[in-house]
């Protein structure tokens, strides 16, 4: 493999890290509150609003049911409005973010549901407001599990970012398609697969370590 191709691999890796990092941050800022709302607005919860909860859950389920490759193509007009183009690394972050938000919401919802309801009742008996319960009980108690779930989402985004290469989204996937597949370079295809495996293993290791440190049990 030439020096130029090695440089292209590092450049593609940087694009993938950029795409996944920015998409994950934006999606988490929206998805974590979404997960909290999915739990707290359900029947019998501290912010009970069943009608709102059903509508919100329906929207989340609808977006989650769309395969990423279809979402990628379907929102091209929206992507152009947001970033001015539908091709390139920045453009790929729009569908990546939209795909991750409902997934994070459901994952956070599952994590918060693991918090014993007795802790919520104890906080209520002390006069805590719903916001205080969310900030000082639900999120801290579920934090370790949330980190584990977010690690899973990051790994999913890495795979999705590779898929974004099918429409010129940049990154490892784009390099694998343009050089490994279209130009019949099995060495490049193998290199991209190995890089993705290493990145996923590293993300999983770091996520597990952080989750273990935050685990209060």
From TrEMBL:
Residue ranges constituting the ABC transmembrane type-1 domain according to the UniProt record: 13-207
Which one GO biological process term can you cite for this protein?
D-methionine transmembrane transport
Q: Where in the cell is it found?
A: Cell membrane
Q: Does Cell inner membrane appear among the keywords? A: no
**Recorded GO CC terms:** plasma membrane
The record ties this protein, via InterPro entries, to: AA_ABC_Transporter_Permease, MetI-like, MetI-like_sf
Q: Where are the transmembrane segments?
A: 17-39, 51-75, 81-104, 142-168, 188-207
- What family classification does the UniProt entry report for this protein? Belongs to the binding-protein-dependent transport system permease family. CysTW subfamily.
CDD domains named in the record: TM_PBP2
* Name of the protein in question: D-methionine transport system permease protein
What the entry lists under PROSITE patterns is as follows:
ABC_TM1 (PS50928)
Q: What Pfam families does this protein's entry cite?
A: BPD_transp_1 (PF00528)
Q: How does it sit in the membrane?
A: Multi-pass membrane protein
Q: Which UniProt keywords apply?
A: Cell membrane, Membrane, Transmembrane, Transmembrane helix, Transport
Which PANTHER family has this protein been placed in?
A: ABC TRANSPORTER PERMEASE, D-METHIONINE TRANSPORT SYSTEM PERMEASE PROTEIN METI-RELATED
């Amino acid at each position: 493999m030439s020096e130029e191709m090695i440089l292209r691999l590092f450049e593609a890796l940087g694009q993938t890290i950029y795409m996944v990092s920015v998409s994950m941050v934006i999606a988490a800022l929206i998805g974590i509150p979404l997960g909290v709302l999915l739990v707290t607005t359900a029947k019998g919860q501290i912010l009970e609003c069943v009608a709102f909860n059903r509508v919100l859950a329906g929207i989340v389920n609808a977006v989650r049911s769309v395969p990423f490759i279809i979402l990628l193509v379907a929102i091209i007009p929206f992507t152009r409005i947001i970033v001015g183009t539908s091709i390139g690394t920045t453009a790929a972050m729009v569908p990546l973010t939209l795909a991750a938000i409902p997934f994070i919401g459901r994952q956070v919802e599952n994590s918060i549901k693991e918090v014993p309801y007795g802790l919520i009742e104890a906080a209520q008996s002390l006069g805590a407001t719903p916001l205080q319960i969310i900030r000082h009980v639900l999120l801290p108690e579920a934090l370790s599990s949330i980190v584990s779930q977010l690690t899973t989402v990051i790994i999913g985004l890495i795979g999705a970012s590779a898929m974004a290469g099918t429409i010129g989204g940049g990154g490892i996937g784009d390099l694998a398609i343009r050089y490994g597949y279209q130009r019949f370079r099995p060495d490049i295809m193998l290199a991209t697969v190995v890089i993705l495996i290493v990145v996923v293993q590293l993300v999983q290791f770091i996520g597990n370590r952080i989750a273990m440190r935050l685990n209060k049990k």
